[in-house]
Amino acid sequence: MVDFSWAPRSPLEKALVAGVHGARRIEADVSLTEIRNFDLVQLMARRGKGTDLAKAAKARFGVVPPDAPKVVQTPDATLIWSGPDQFFVLSKGGKHTVRTLAPALSGPASLSDQSHARVLISISGAKARTMLAKLSSIDLHPDAFPVGAAAATSMDHTSVTLWRGNDRTNGQAVFNVLVFATFAESLWHTMLDSGAEYGVAISHSENLA
Amino acid sequence: MRIVCPFCGERELGEFTYLGDTKPVRPEAGASEDEVFDYVYLRDNVAGDTSEYWYHGGGCRAWLKVTRNTLTHEISSIEPAAGAGAAKVDA
Amino acid sequence: MAGAQTHRLGNGGLVDRSAPLNFRFDGKAFSGFQGDTLASALIANGVKLVGRSFKYHRPRGILTSGSEEPNALVELRTGARREPNTKATTAELYDGLEAASQNRWPSLRHDVMSVNQLFAPIFVAGFYYKTFMWPAKFWEAIYEPAIRRAAGLGRAAGVADPDHYDKAWAHCDVLIAGSGPTGLAAALAAGRSGARVILCEEDFTLGGRLLSDGGTIDGVPAAEWLSRTLAELADMPDVRIMTRTTLFGVYDGGTYGAIERVNDHLPSPPQHQVRQRLWRIVAKRCVVAAGAIERPIVFAGNDTPGVMMASAIRTYVARYAATPAKRLALFTNNEDGWRTVETALGAGLQIAAVIDARPEISPAHRSLASKGGFPVLHGSVSGVDGGKDGVRKIAVSLTGGARAEVEADGLAVSGGWNPAVGLTSFHRGRPAWRDDISAFVPDGAPPGMVAAGAANGDFGLGACLSQGFAAGAAAARDTGHSGIVGTAPAADDEAFSLTPLWHVAGKGKAFVDYQHDVTASDIELAQREGFESVEHLKRYTTLGMATDQGKTSNVAGLAIMAAVSGRSIPETGTTIYRPPYVPVAIGAFAGHHRDETFHATRLTPSHHWAVEQGAVFVDTGLWKRAQWYPRAGEKDWLESVTREVKAVRSGVGFCDVSTLGKIDVHGPDAGAFLDRVYINTFSSLAVGKARYGLMLREDGIVYDDGTTSRLAEDHYFLTTTTAKAGLVMQHLEFCRQVLFPELDVQLTSVSDQWAQFSIAGPKTRDLLREIVDPSEDLSNEGFPFMGVREVALRGGLRARLFRISFSGEMAFEISVPARFGDAMARNLMLAGAPFGVTPYGTEALGVMRVEKGHIAGPELSGTTTAADLGLGKMMSTKKDYIGRVMAGREALVAPDRQVVVGIRPTDRTRRLRSGAHIIPKGQTPGPGNDQGYVTSVCFSPTLDQWIGLALVERGRERIGEIVHAHDPLRGEDYDVELCNPVFYDPDGGRQRG
Amino acid sequence: MKYSIFSLARAALSGHKNWQRTWRDATPKDRYDVVIIGGGGHGLATAWFLASEYGIKNVAVLEKGWIGSGNAGRNTTIIRSNYGLPGNTGFYELSMKLWERMEQDLNYNAMVSQRGVINLYHSDAQRDAYARRGNTMRINGIDAELLDLAAVRKMIPFLNFDNARFPVQGGLLQRRGGTARHDAVVWGYAHAASELGVDIIQNCEVTGFVRDANGKVTGVETSRGKIGAGKVGMAVAGSSSRVAAMAGLRLPIESHVLQAFVSEAIKPLIPGVMTFGAGHFYVSQSDKGGLVFGGDIDGYNSYAQRGNMPVMEDVCEGGMALMPMIGRVRLLRQWGGIMDMSMDGSPIIDKTPVDGLYINAGWCYGGFKATPGSGFVFAHLLARDESHNEAARFRLDRFRTGAMIDEKGQGAQPNLH
Predict the structure, then answer these.
(1) What's the pTM?
(2) SS3 letters for chain D?
(3) pLDDT for C328-378, tens place per residue?
(4) Chain C: nearest CA to D330, how far in angstroms?
(5) Does B18 map to a domain?
(6) Where are the domains of chain D?
């Protein structure tokens, strides 16, 4: 009998080369970090069960899930609006998976595992907004897209879920992008091209920002 | 063109796909061939305000009813399709 | 060594004399300064002749100092970066710049094509519509090639553009076009209000006409006010000022197009930088402060090098300290032209005379003339004596009929000013005529846009500042910003008086459209021939269609048409204004999307493993799919594919089929929902079972197919074809949200969640038993055909297993979360090694599906019905579903439709090709007996011959008939037998076994 | 007045003072045998064929603006007959044959230039579809050649063969395809029809139909008064639904905007017409030197005659994917025309359910190349009250019976054709 190993492989495994891309500066003005190994569940309210879902989610997570394009943080999960009466639960470590959420939530909602369907990229740096302006038609001005804002949108003709996490300690904004896994390498290269003139610091991480 | 998705806010044209006039209503089961023909093929094709289905496929995937002027492209109102999200609609 | 700048003033101007720049024009070395344009540098070097006109190849000089320039077009840069038709008046000088004149041969001074001037009596507007008709064949062979060679302007590089472009979005409350006094005042007011402001300036220096015309604002010199204002704006974080950026178009919903020439002022873009950037600016309000364009007067010889717009001469002298003439004459019909005289005198130039078409001039100007010692002639310029080296003498018709002559080496012309009405008219708004300035002003601007200052027909400096300020403040207020704006900057208004004058009758060609060589008499001819509508005029004479978009010619042209057709100018009207306001590089509109990054690329979960295996990939939509896996020693694709098929049919193989669209259909009404979208029934499908489904469009034609499984009472897993994945999702959402909103069903795309592999061949179970946990029952009884369930894999992972077959073999599809797809491919190789497992690509997949008679893309052509595909029996008669009624129309159920049938050549060695047509045997092919065509073919290793599928009229009734495959495109004709489309294992025993 | 090099030379001697109007400026009469609504290429061609082929000269062409101001003056000037479905194939070839003799027929140089049309293919599936189409053409006696990669490289070496996202594999070539000077086609038909007595009436907008007691159309109401007619033919693509609505008809047509673009004039760069098979881009170069190009329709109903940026960008992206040598060539003008997008992508030339009213509509974006053919078969229908053989499938009721002519296989979704 052969021994099988089932090592997960990120869709960016090949494309992501840690280090600096593009212009060499003292400090790269854009940083791109892939966050690996997360749990992502999509919840969609059943017909007429939007309120029930909100209640059940409140009971499960301690917070009311977003009913507008926003994210809501809990100590161990991020609830991300993904459309009317639907949201994602993003977490680490197997606490919030379809299996663990279903008992409490499958009454008012359908659940669909998206953990492998997306790649999560975190973007920050002094020129993060400038670089993103090449990809996103959304207004990312701090007043228009504050911390906690989210959007189901497209970047470079590719569907993404975008949200603004907490600022870094140096005050720089952090933008998180969930992109479909099979498009990830392509969008990644587009991001590198877009950021090259500012210098891009590339890394990956196991930690949610 | 910018379309204000009732769920997402104002978005760029490129995120949406156009389908057509909302006026033709799919006939109930048992309708005649003539009625279905009318639904599938005939259009008022109005020059002026018209209500249209648009799909926010590049965003929240909601189908929208958009009232738009075909002479000026100005949009005067937008509402979600009856069954967008988890909206409850009686049969 | 570069020549001396003979025509540069000793001091003054905004050029940086500490930064000399060398450049070449037509191979000759010159020098200029930082801050020059190519045009100002040429003028500083005394160059007058810069180009040749389109039709007559007349010698031409620089006419203007901006993007309205019709004459001074050059090929800028060399090699792959050569840019034809570049306006010298907007090209920034850089060290090492190389430019060449164009549309001339062998040289600019001696252009053979100027012989065209001899034929000018024949080459009138539209002459080509009246001749070159006989003999018919001569058009393509003789006339047209000659015309094409002669036409055109500069030469494109002819090789791929080596530079990069990108595109970006910007958002603001108030967008301002132009940084002259109007635009800056608007920016001040809007910025102080707290609005987000973007100001776009075409030039590389901010200030607009202030840079040339100066003046006094708020009691200080304009330059001082300018620097103070720019400093204030720079301190406002939400005011963004973009130089070298032209607002070229306005689109719906307040979306504006702008082009930023990021690095055109350098020889080539620095590493990692783009040449130009296309901006899509979303603005709630827009203030058009784009100024006005001075217009020429049409008179004989008005195209002689050295005849220039009066304001341009001011710009060259004041801003660039370059002198286009030593002894200048002015021909004006308005007060503003005189400012050129003031500037010229201030710079020490000689004024030969002022020819003023107005009946009266002001006392101030009269005393200026006597102080300057030059005559003021009341009348018009009726001719210019000169040539490629410039102006020598100017003929003047004096009011009252007498004639005079003026000796000068330059002639400044001012026919008044036309507000830049482009942006405000791009939504088909027609500008309105204003008699007091004899010009069109904006009217019917797109929503949210206003024009102010000179762009609105108010030319005085004071008016520009106050209007701009008010417009900026109002725009900010409209967008919810009400900060304290303070008071508007103030200045006096210059006097403005004008006597309309468009055309001076005279002997010799008088040009309206310089670049296209449209003369006043061409316009008269057009009117005579009935082309008096302005759109006809434009199309017949090509007036206004040159690279300057008629900025200097349109109004004069229609004024002349108005005069000859006895209508007023407003009655004559304007043509439709078309974006872009200035020509924009095609590369900029494409941005990043060119070459290999034209479109996104989708990769399957096992892509990089397949690359390691040496797979050849094929583009399927956006996907890269492994097409086959060549092995050393195989001579062509056919050998590889044949090996792969044989390996599957005799052993086991696997193929990544993750590209299929996958949709989770959840909810208590999921079954009912699927019943309405599929022609067959899914509500009756048992949990743990899969079924093949077919969808129609509402018009009754087949839309898509796929296998859909029931994973739970309220959960189906639907698959689509690779091609239609996104469209089916959209269609199903339409059904869910619009057609059947009463059904409780939820849809989620899970296409990217699952890596899915087809494992096929008689040894499939052997392989699977290696990889699946031993506790799982894979026997025919324990896991029957069309069964579906979740299984445990060795090593702890869970997978979904579907017993479905596209190849016709004993087969399963296995799916695991996508990040395990790579491991799955590797583990299948490991587990299958003892059984000779063979990865196969889309070609082998295609071969096996043709052998099995399954339909795919070529048969799902969007014109075939379920019955055409042999699937008519699937159409339920017990329920309503999308497309049911329309599928019953008479022509769609006619007995003579083309239906899917198998074909095989009567000569077993014969190769088949898709696209051949089917003709009854023994008949001569013609439209009357064209009975169908071959949709799919393959070499079947199993049958050891080529086989195919075809759509053939009444095909199923004709099984066994020999027909003719007719392929004239490839010169092939051969007999084929119509046969059962299922070539392999027709009773399906293998896939069920 | 006969046009020729000799008449030009003679005219030059008199300073071109003696040229007459290209077409007479007619005032409407009370009644015509046939009134054509729409002074575009199709309407004028119909009038000319009525007069020249069918001997019906008491004809008026009513134009609400100036002739050729609709799609005849807004297209990208391509002519071709490379269609694949019965109905289209023969009709467009009839039209092509009429192009080939147009200038001699009309005594007007419309610059019909058969420099070739090549449709590039980028996949085996696309090659097979083109092979099917090309074979259809050949079976119908139309020239077609299937070129492989080597042949395409030789013919148009400047394409991106080296680092393309979707590499070119070959092309379907129709050498007889090409371009014609669109405005000149309009003026040529106007000139020739006017010479035969047809009244061309500009600035005459039809505002309604005059019907008799039986509902038969007996004339039109216009901005210049009532005009009687034996028969009324409408050739108003872009406005078909609006005009038909005046007669109480609803059509299987939607109006969509199609943008077109022209670059600055440059020296000859591109030989014939090329279409990109992996994106929305087609291009030719005018005799004046501009690259004339276009792509997909904007995709939403519109009567605005202008488009938006996404399509503009999409088209230029296609251009840069196919031939990145045009990166530095500048786009000079952009405009939009309103297409009669029919429910199967093919035209309608038929009687209508309203007696006396005939329709010529639904040209999608194929109207220009059809101009002479459309005029010919519409004249036939108006003169004989029966469809011309080559237009027999362009029936209005084909959607009801299911006999669609759907080249793209997109179904009743006009914006996808």
Answers:
(1) 0.97
(2) CCCCHHHHHHHHHCCCCCCCCCCCCCCCCCEEEEEEECCCHHHHHHHHHHHHCCCCCCEEEECCCCCCCCHHHCCCCEECCCCCCCCHHHHHHHHHHHHHCHHHHHCCCCCCECCCEEEEECCHHHHHHHHHHHHHHHHCCCCCEEEEHHHHHHHCCCCCCCCCCCCCCEEEEECCCEECCHHHHHHHHHHHHHHCCCEEECCCCEEEEEECCCCCEEEEEECCEEEEEEEEEECCCCCHHHHHHHCCCCECEEEEEEEEEEEEEECCCCCCEEECCCCCCEEEECCCCEEEEEEEEEEEECCCCCCCHHHHHHHHHHHHHHCHHHCCCEEEEEEEEEEEEECCCCCEEEECCCCCEEEEECCCCCCCCCHHHHHHHHHHHHHHCCCCHHHCCCCCCHHHHCCCCCCCCCCCCHHHC
(3) 999 999 999 999 999 999 999 999 999 999 999 999 999 999 999 999 999
(4) 4
(5) yes
(6) 25-107+182-248+344-416, 117-177+254-342
Q: Which chain A residues contact residue C600 at CB under 8 A?
A: 156-158, 183, 186-187, 190
Residue in C169, C173, C664, C733 to test binding to B, most B beta-carbons within 10 Å: C733
The per-residue pLDDT for range C265-316, each reduced to its tens digit, is 999 999 999 999 999 999 999 999 999 999 999 999 999 999 999 999 999 9
pLDDT at C134: 82
For the segment D377-397, the average pLDDT, to the nearest whole number, is 98
Mark yes or no for CB contact C794/A134 under 8 Å.
Answer: no
Number of domains in chain C: 6
In a domain, B41, yes or no: yes
Q: How far is A60 from chain B (nearest CA, A)?
A: 20
Helix (H) or strand (E) holding C847: helix C842-851
Q: Could you list the residue range(s) of the whole structural domain that residue C705 is in?
A: 661-749
CATH code at position B67 = 3.30.2270.10
- Interface with chain B: mutation pick from C169, C281, C673, C737, highest number of B CBs within 10 Å: C737
> Residue C2: its pLDDT value, please?
52
Chains contacting A (3 or more CB pairs within 8 Å): B, C
Q: How many domains does chain B have?
A: 1
Stretch C905-919: mean pLDDT, rounded? 98
Q: Is the pLDDT of residue C242 over 80?
A: yes
CATH code for the domain of C837: 3.30.1360.120
Partners of residue A85 in chain B, C-beta under 8 Å: 85-87
- Please give the residue of chain C at the shortest CA–CA distance from B84: C737
Q: Do A45 and B61 make contact, defined as CB atoms within 8 angstroms?
A: no
Under CATH, which number does the domain D117-177+254-342 receive? 3.30.9.10
Average per-residue pLDDT in chain D?
Answer: 97
User: C666 to chain B, minimum CA–CA distance in Å?
Assistant: 13
Task: Give domain limits for chain A.
Answer: 19-36+117-203, 39-113
Question: What's the pLDDT at C605?
Answer: 98
**Residue C854 is assigned to a structural domain of this protein:** no
ipTM for the whole predicted complex goes beyond 0.85: yes
> Could you say which of A181, A190, A194 has the minimum Cβ distance to residue C818?
A181
Class of domain A39-113: alpha beta
pLDDT of the residue at C137? 82
Residue C917 and residue D136: Cβ atoms within 8 Å? yes
Asked: is A19-36+117-203 a CATH 3.30.1360.120 domain? The reply is yes
Whether residues D303 and B47 touch (CB distance < 8 A) is answered with yes
Q: What is the pLDDT of residues D249-264, one digit of tens each?
A: 999 999 999 999 999 9
Q: Is A133's CB within 8 Å of C666's CB?
A: no
Question: So what's the architecture of D25-107+182-248+344-416 in CATH?
Answer: 3-Layer(bba) Sandwich (3.50)
A114·C280 Cβ contact <8 A: no
A137 touches chain C (CB under 8 A): yes
